[in-house]
Every structure is written in structure tokens, then in C-alpha cells.
Design goal:
With about 600 residues, the chain is α/β, with parallel strands linked by helices. It has 3 domains: about 180 residues, no CATH class; about 140 residues, no CATH class; about 110 residues, hypothetical protein PF0899 fold, CATH 3.30.2320. The chain contains 15 helices and 22 strands. It starts with 13 loop residues before the first strand and ends with a strand.
Length: about 600
């Protein structure tokens, strides 16, 4: 027996048109004639303003009746005995609520016309057509605002603005209100036979074939008999859970859904209704908020012996992925803060050859002397040293096929390539300044340390070196770096080190477990430094002559380091096109020199690795 058919004239609380055909909506959409005619006689839930999240929004149920050429009429509309149902009956009787709306999905569109679909529920609503609403995947014609935030499916809510016709209204009951029951409470009242029937109804609604799977059914009771045994409260739960499952069943585009099945895509294969019973039992046991959650979490339904459900290769129907923050790719790179510190701190000179001079007045012969009458006076004697540093060209070359440039339409690949080249050129120069480019001496691409003189490895008159043992306690390391100031004659310096080394010193605790230095600024201040900057590339740097010694850090004030270039240190960008190979070439280069210009203005901290 088809339990979705009811006598349309059986003691209705009211009747009225749920939707009217060929009525132009304010947004230009039209419900085509006979669009929902196939649902003539279908029982649907009666809901308050399309509430799908709370069963208390279910007010009752009604029967759809197709009126040829006019629309879908709701007859046999009955309010349930819940507090909400009683209140709705009173408001309708008093004329306070006078509008109906339908919620439908599985839509098929022809231009602006809805030509097919499935009505899932009819709602009482406060207002008629809303000129601000729009029909897309979800359509909401109403002056009522805000409720559409609760829907994530591809349904349509059609608001007619037609008056209700009251045919039968039962006065509100005088019985005392009862405490609201939970989903778990009501599901626990289902008998085994009712659970079987509910499984069949859910399977039928979702299009699953149960004809060959009758295990667990009570052969002595047919579907209609068991369905009639549900009380009103149980029926409300059955209707809303089936409606909720239907609303979440499909997420495809309306027209696409119709076309896919019309072209022969298969419906789901047979599935034992005992699986549905298991889901229902699990929902009762776990107290799930919705049957949708129970279905999603049930492995039997999810896998069911390897049976495939729905549309094969359904991912082909999904919309194209969209970029989160624009089409430009995110550039994955190491922390580049230190590169900016090198460039912003160094002294930039407008010429590419620099010379520094220093005189060593610490020698004994440079001391002042006492004079004895008639004795000879001796002149002060001290050495003077000069150091010249000449430039070297540092460059990055890249090329792109012109076909690739034309085919990449989401973003300007040339601009991105230029940005990457600028980032990498600055990083390479900064590496050469701090500790060299770490390429072998015989590598033809090596940046010559005589042209850009690295601070680590510079002459001891410029860079003093202190050594730490492999097991040196972090608190002792802090003391060592503090004491190193006696070998440093520059202004307040900055410590360039790795994140790991910084954390070692930051995590030092006192005897009661409190961190001694809460931030790196506190730590820098304790060592007499102006700041601490982490350099990710430093973690693999070792002594050029002894690989068992690693670089722990460098203390320097970059104002004591000069970088010279004839154009002020700026890089030049060149583009060319290779006609033979259809390639666009890019060249970014700078001609630059660099060196410390004052003695004893840097300290390199080495640590044994073994």
C-alpha cells in the first residue's frame, strides 16, 4: 500500500494553495504549469518558516492536490497536538498567519522557468513575495529575512502570498503543556515493526531498492497497518527525519541532476533494510541530533560491501575549485625577515669599489713616553693597513615558454616570476654578506668572498671568533655571549642565529621552573644586544675548514658593513625573446661589493658538533 496517499477531504484544519503555476515572481522566475503535478496526493510535513533544524518546527502535515492549470493545493492540512501545533492552529484561525510557502529541490530549469521538482514540505510564513530574493541553487521568495542562513542544500522556497481558506479548525486543547521530548526519547518508542517500516520509508524516499531484501520484516503486518500504528508524535518525527534526509541527499546543479539520470546513470543498487535498522538503533543509542549524522557515521551504509551508490564519478559534477585569496600563488619560502635586516641595516654606497683603512695603535710603540732631560725623544710608531674590495656581478636567469605564458590565464605568470627572482637575488646577497654562499671554492657560480666579504670567515681584525662546546649549557651560552662584548668595539649589535639556538636560550628556567627570559627582547637586553634575528639558512653552515664545527650565531651592527654599487645597489632587470625556441628570457642582476669597514665590529660564535 502506498502510504503517501491520503484522503484529501479528511477533517482538514485548513486548505489553500501552496504554490500557483505561471505566476511571475518578483525576480523574474516562473513556476511552469504542472511542474509538481506528479506529486498529486503526496503527504508532506507542515513546517514553520522552513525550519529544518528543530523538530519543534514541525506543525503537522497535509496532502498535496494538483489542480490542473492552476497550481498545487494543500488539502487535509492538519496541525499536530504539540504546543507549536496548537499555537499555529489558533493563529491561522484568527487570521494572524495567512500565507503558505513550499520547499522543493531536485529542480529542473528551462531558462527562468521551473519545469520539474519535488516539494518536500509546506510552510506557514509571515509574508509574501520578496523582491530582494534570488533564485540560484536556493530560492527564497519572501520579505522574511535571515532564515536562509540555515540551509545548505540546493532547494527552492516558493512563497505564493495567497490567503488560506479555513475549513476546519479545532479549538486549542486545555490540557497542560508537557515537557518537550528529545529525538532519542521519541525514537525509543518505536516498535521493531515500526523501525522496519521507517527503514522502508527512508529507503523509498532516497530511491534505494529494497524489493529483494526483506530480512527482518514482520510478514504478519503489511506496511499500511504498521504505518497506521504510529501515533502523531511518532509521525512528526518520521516526517521531519525523512524530509531532512531528502533535503541533504543531492548537492548537484538542478539541470545537471536531471540530465545525468535521463542519460542512463544508474540509481543505487539493492541495500538491505536491516542496515537502516542498524542506523536507527545507533541513532537511538548515541542520541544523534539528526538521522543525517547517523547515516554519515554508519560504516554499513558508507561501504555496504563495496556497493556504489548514486552517480558514478560524481566528482565530475562538482564546481571548479576557486582560489582562496586571488589567483596569485602563495610563495613558500623561509623566514625572510633577516634579509630585510641585512639590506636595511647595511651602509649603501653609490660606488662599486670601496677601501677601508685602519691603524693599529694598540702596539707598544704607539704608547706615550716620559721624557728625561737631554735624552732623545722617540717618535710614535704604529702600522697602517688598507683593504680594497671590488665588485662582482650576482645574477638570476630564468626562461618561460611563450605557450605556457599564454595558457596560464588565472594570474600573470611573468610578474610572479619577476617577484620570485627579486626575492632570491636579495636572499643570495644577504647569505654572502653573513656567511658566504657555501658553494665549493671551485664552483664557477660561487660568489667570490673577496668581492662580497662574509662576516663569518673575515679577517680576525674585523671578526672575532669565540668557541662553544657541543654540550655547553644554554645558561652558560648566554653568559658567554655577554662576555664576548669585551672583544666587540661596534655599536649595540644584533645576534643573527637559528630558531633552535634561540629557543635553547629562551627556555632556560630558574630553580622554581619559571623561564628566566620571557621574550627574545628580554634575552637580547640581558646580553647587551639590540635584538635577535633568526636565520633559517644558518642551521647548515659549518666552518669552511672543519665540518665538525657549526656556526651558532653572528653578532654585528650592520651599519659597520658597507655595500657598494655604481647604481646605488639597485638591481637591473632584462627581458629578451628567443625566436628559435619560442621562449621568453629574464635576467636580474646586480654588480656589488661588500665588506666590514671597521675592525672588531663583529663576533662569530662557533659550536662543536661532536
Amino acid at each position: 500500500m502506498d502510504t503517501t496517499k491520503q484522503n484529501p477531504e479528511d477533517q482538514a484544519d485548513f486548505v489553500g494553495f501552496a504554490t500557483v503555476y505561471n505566476e511571475l515572481c518578483d525576480d523574474g522566475k516562473v513556476i511552469a504549469q504542472d511542474a509538481f503535478s506528479k506529486q498529486d496526493g503526496t503527504v508532506v510535513p507542515l513546517v514553520w518558516i522552513h525550519g529544518h533544524q528543530d523538530m519543534r518546527d514541525v506543525l503537522g502535515h497535509g496532502t498535496l492536490k494538483h489542480v490542473a492549470g492552476v497550481g498545487m493545493r494543500l488539502v487535509n492540512a492538519k496541525f499536530n497536538s504539540t504546543d507549536a501545533g496548537k499555537l499555529a492552529r489558533t493563529l491561522v484561525k484568527e487570521g494572524d498567519i495567512r500565507h503558505l510557502s513550499v520547499y522543493a529541490n531536485k529542480l529542473v530549469m528551462q531558462g527562468n522557468r521551473v519545469v520539474d521538482g519535488v516539494i518536500r514540505e509546506v510552510s506557514l510564513v509571515l509574508a509574501g513575495a520578496n523582491p530582494k530574493a534570488s533564485i540560484d541553487q536556493v530560492v527564497f521568495h519572501s520579505s522574511f529575512g535571515g532564515q536562509d542562513d540555515h540551509y545548505e542544500d540546493d532547494g527552492v522556497r516558493i512563497w505564493t502570498g495567497r490567503s488560506l481558506e479555513l475549513l476546519h479548525a479545532t479549538p486549542p486543547s486545555k490540557e497542560a503543556p508537557t515537557k518537550s521530548k528529545t529525538l532519542k526519547d521519541i525514537l525509543n518508542t518505536f516498535t521493531p515493526a515500526q523501525k522496519d517500516v521507517f527503514g522502508y520509508l527512508m529507503a523509498d524516499a532516497l530511491g534505494l531498492d529494497l524489493s529483494s531484501n526483506t530480512d527482518g520484516a514482520d510478514e504478519g503486518q503489511d506496511l499500511a497497518t504498521v504505518y497506521a500504528s504510529f501515533n502523531q508524535e511518532q509521525l512528526d518525527v518520521v516526517h521531519i527525519l525523512i524530509s531532512e534526509a531528502l533535503a541533504s541527499e543531492d548537492g548537484e546543479d538542478e539541470t545537471m541532476t536531471h540530465n545525468v539520470f535521463a542519460n542512463g546513470a544508474t540509481r543505487p543498487e539493492a541495500l538491505s533494510h536491516s542496515s537502516f535498522n542498524n542506523v536507527l538503533a545507533n541513532a537511538i543509542q548515541s542520541g544523534a541530533d539528526s538521522l543525517r549524522d547517523a547515516f554519515n557515521n554508519d560504516e554499513a551504509i558508507a561501504h555496504a560491501g563495496g556497493v556504489d551508490y548514486g552517480i558514478t564519478n560524481i566528482e565530475s559534477l562538482f564546481p571548479e575549485a576557486k582560489f582562496v585569496d586571488g589567483a596569485k600563488p602563495y610563495l613558500v619560502q623561509d623566514d625572510a625577515l633577516w634579509v630585510g635586516k641585512i639590506y636595511s641595516g647595511a651602509r649603501m654606497l653609490p660606488y662599486s669599489r670601496i677601501k677601508s683603512t685602519y691603524a693599529d695603535i694598540t702596539v707598544e710603540t704607539a704608547r706615550a713616553r716620559g721624557y728625561i732631560t737631554a735624552d732623545q725623544k722617540f717618535s710614535m710608531v704604529y702600522p697602517v693597513f688598507n683593504r680594497k674590495t671590488t665588485p662582482q656581478t650576482v645574477y638570476i636567469h630564468q626562461e618561460l615558454d611563450r605557450d605556457d605564458i599564454l595558457d596560464i590565464t588565472d594570474f600573470n605568470v611573468v610578474l610572479v616570476q619577476k617577484e620570485i627572482m627579486q626575492i632570491k637575488l636579495r636572499e643570495e646577497v644577504a647569505r654572502a654578506v653573513l656567511f658566504g654562499d657555501d658553494r665549493p671554492v671551485n664552483d664557477p657560480n660561487k660568489i667570490n668572498p673577496e668581492n662580497i666579504r662574509p662576516i663569518y670567515g673575515d679577517d680576525p681584525i674585523y671578526t672575532h671568533v669565540i668557541s662553544l662546546t657541543v654540550d655547553r649549557d644554554p645558561l652558560d651560552i648566554i653568559d658567554d655571549l655577554t662576555k664576548a662584548s669585551e672583544h666587540y668595539e661596534g655599536d649595540s649589535g644584533t645576534l643573527f642565529t637559528t630558531v633552535a639556538n634561540l629557543n635553547k636560550m629562551l627556555l632556560v628556567r630558574d630553580t622554581v621552573g619559571h623561564r628566566i627570559h620571557r621574550t627574545k627582547d628580554e634575552l637580547a637586553g640581558a646580553m647587551g644586544l639590540s635584538g635577535i634575528v633568526t636565520v633559517p639558512q644558518m642551521k647548515n653552515i659549518v666552518n669552511p675548514t672543519d665540518a665538525t664545527i657549526g656556526l651558532f650565531g653572528i653578532i654585528v651592527n650592520m651599519r659597520d658593513y658597507a655595500m657598494g654599487a655604481d647604481s646605488g645597489g639597485s638591481a637591473s632587470f632584462f627581458e629578451d625573446f628567443d625566436l628559435k625556441f619560442n621562449k621568453k628570457e629574464f635576467l636580474l642582476e646586480t654588480r656589488i661589493c661588500g665588506a666590514l669597514v671597521k675592525p672588531k665590529t663583529a663576533i662569530a660564535i662557533e659550536q662543536s658538533l661532536v
